[in-house]
Amino acid sequence: MPPLADCRFFRFIIPNMENQIRLPVPFSNGVRDNMSNPVEVITTNGQSWSISWVVEEEHPHQIVFTGGWRAFYEHYHLRIGDSMLLSYHQPKFFYVAIHDTRYCEINYGRNLRNRSLPVIPAHGNYTVQFFAIIPVNDPDTLKLPLRFSREYGRSLPRPLTLTTPTGHRHRVGWNMQPNGRIVLHGGWDDVRARYGLRDEWLVLFRYHTVQSTMYVMFFNGHTMEINYLDHAGPRTDCTCITNPSAPRSRHIADGFRSTNPFFVSPIMHRLANRFLPNVPPLPGVCKDSPITITNERGAWTVRYTHYVGRTNGCFGIGWSALATACQLRHGHVCVFERLAPQEYRLHIY
N or C: which end of the chain has fewer CB within 10 A? Predict the structure, then answer.
């Protein structure tokens, strides 16, 4: 099995995609300076393909797979409506799982040998993988693919336990429609609310028949996975590291739009012009490290300290200069947008 992916996203096959395929803008912006060219694309049956890429002139923010893509496209008989789940492992590798028009993963190892339509696959450390698209204006239910429902509906436990990447388990009820389709209902609305899921986002399911366990991952409107592994408070499509409790902070977090992780910190402490308390653990940062914070007023180096035995840390040395320059005062809310492990951009509300 490949190691944990740095980033996952979906791409749907649409007309005129035989010769090239564009990758999401947020992904392209984050990796194009460091990604190898060509990259290796590895499918679930172990085959490896070398594919080169360019940054398209008409869409300067998008990476486009070109050289080698057509051979890949034809070899796997891709057609309009199919989709690919790409898992990027920097700086060179993509692991790809291909799904058919019914949203179920295709076992191309069996398909290419027999030259026939595949059945639901059984490979990797799960029995079957599929996805569903969250419907518009229906927060209480989610329909699973008919193909999965008919194959596994008789053995699916009630209620169904959904396990998220954070390890949290959610019990969700389900019914079967007359045509055999499974519909999630009781408890699904709580999952949507907890993870801030929105209409037309994607939910990836991996079902283990032996364990009777369903693992889920969530993908936002850019078809990119929302990585909750290192973040405590899943609320938005832009991955809020914290889970704000104050109404104003929560409102700002819900409205903040970025493809980067961020955290929200209200200015409430009477000594906030000297140091900023309650800074969450920062992914990729040691417990006592310098952090670069920038905004339109300038750039500052601030010492981040994470106290042993405590959940949060603080911004100390260097914070006073930042607070003075930015004229921070009680009642302001700061959003710290992560640009790199030790580089953040400050937004003040």
Answer: N
Other residues' Cβ atoms within 10 Å of the Cβ of residue 234: 22
- Report d(CA 316, CA 302) in Å as an integer: 7
Q: In terms of Cα–Cα distance, which of 275, 307, 189, 168 is closest to 231? A: 168
Contact of 266 with 334, CB cutoff 8 Å: yes
Starting at the edge strand found earlier in the chain, the sheet holding 7-12 runs 7-12, 83-89, 93-99, 39-43, 48-51
- Has residue 263 got a pLDDT over 50? yes
Q: What is the pLDDT of residue 233?
A: 42
Over range 141-160, report the average pLDDT: 93
What sign does the dihedral 211-198-28-31 (CA atoms) show?
A: negative
C-alpha–C-alpha distance, residues 133 and 305, integer Å: 42
Residue at 141: amino acid letter: T
The helix/strand count (H/E) of the chain reads as 7, 23
Question: How confident is the prediction for the chain on average, in pLDDT?
Answer: 82
| Lookup result for tokens 């339109």 | 296
User: Alpha carbon of 87 to those of 93, 128, 154, 224, 281: distances in Å?
Assistant: 8, 17, 32, 10, 26
What confidence category does residue 126 fall into, taking pLDDT thresholds of 50, 70 and 90?
low
Phi, psi (degrees; rounded to nearest 5) at 329: -150, 170
Of all residues in the chain, the percent with pLDDT exceeding 70 is 83
Structural domains of the chain, with CATH: 1-120 (2.40.330.10), 124-233 (2.40.330.10), 247-348 (2.40.330.10)
**Tokens, residue 335:** 């959003």
| Cα separation, 244 vs 262, whole angstroms | 12
Pick from 149, 143, 224, 227: nearest CA to 185: 143
